[in-house]
Specification:
Layout lengths: L1 H5 L7 E9 L4 H14 L3 E8 L9 E9 L11 E6 L2 H7 L3 E10 L14 E5 L1 H9 L5 H13 L5 H11 L1 E2 L2 E2 L1 H24 L2
Parallel strand pairs: 1-4, 4-5, 5-6
Antiparallel strand pairs: 1-3, 2-3, 7-8
Helix pairs in contact: 2-5, 2-6, 4-5, 4-7, 5-7, 6-7
Length: 205
């Protein structure tokens, strides 16, 4: 399959992803899940978090750049991404240019529809993540974990399903305490995204 050839797992693996979205979309949590899952698989990972200026209220963005590598990551900043996820038009406008030719672009198709330059140069995956989240868990806010499922489908076996689930169990808290009900909700959202991603990739063959 086209995507698997691009990100095949080998001794020199280095995979770079940029996740961008509106504040409240759970972008940072998604980045942390991916980084923790990579570490569980024995890989090195670096997560760099950036927020829009505090005065930009009501329309602020958050950014999580994740670098995953078999060898130690010695430089934490992204020059060119293998995967770019944008949940809003603003995020797309700001940073789509960072995606390398042949890279994977994921966007939240219930929120916006971008005009993509040189469309044939990228693997484009529209995902109705909010719709999937609401249908699966009854909570739109779990859309970020749906999107982690999509990314996992793309990156397997670099990122493994059971490692993401264990990361969810370790990181899902309410009032500072681990919460099994929230864990179960996030796991359902993740698996719904994973299933959607696998089905979509099958159709690209």
């Amino acid at each position: 399959m086209f995507i698997n050839r691009k990100i095949c797992y080998n001794s020199s693996i280095r995979y770079v992803s940029g996740l961008w979205g509106l504040g409240g979309h759970g972008i940072v949590f998604a980045g942390r899940l991916l980084g923790m899952a990579a570490a569980m698989g024995g890989l090195d990972s670096i997560l760099t978090i950036t927020y829009s200026p505090p005065e930009q209220r009501g329309g602020g963005w958050s950014r999580a750049d994740v670098i995953i590598a078999k060898e130690m990551v010695d430089y934490p900043l992204i020059d060119e991404a293998d995967l770019f996820l944008a949940t809003t038009q603003q995020a797309f406008n700001l940073e789509f240019k960072s995606l390398r030719k042949g890279g994977v672009f994921i966007y939240e198709s219930t929120i916006y529809k971008p005009t993509i330059p040189n469309l044939g140069s990228y693997v484009v995956i529209p995902v109705p993540a909010t719709e999937i989240a609401e249908k699966t868990t009854g909570r739109k806010l779990t859309m970020n974990v749906v999107l982690v499922g999509i990314i996992t489908a793309i990156l397997e076996p670099v990122i493994k399903e059971d490692h993401i689930i264990n990361a969810i169990k370790g990181m899902t808290r309410r009032a500072g305490k681990l919460d099994t009900s929230v864990q179960e909700m996030n796991i359902k959202a993740f698996q719904a995204g994973l299933d959607y991603g696998k089905k979509y990739l099958q159709e690209l063959r």
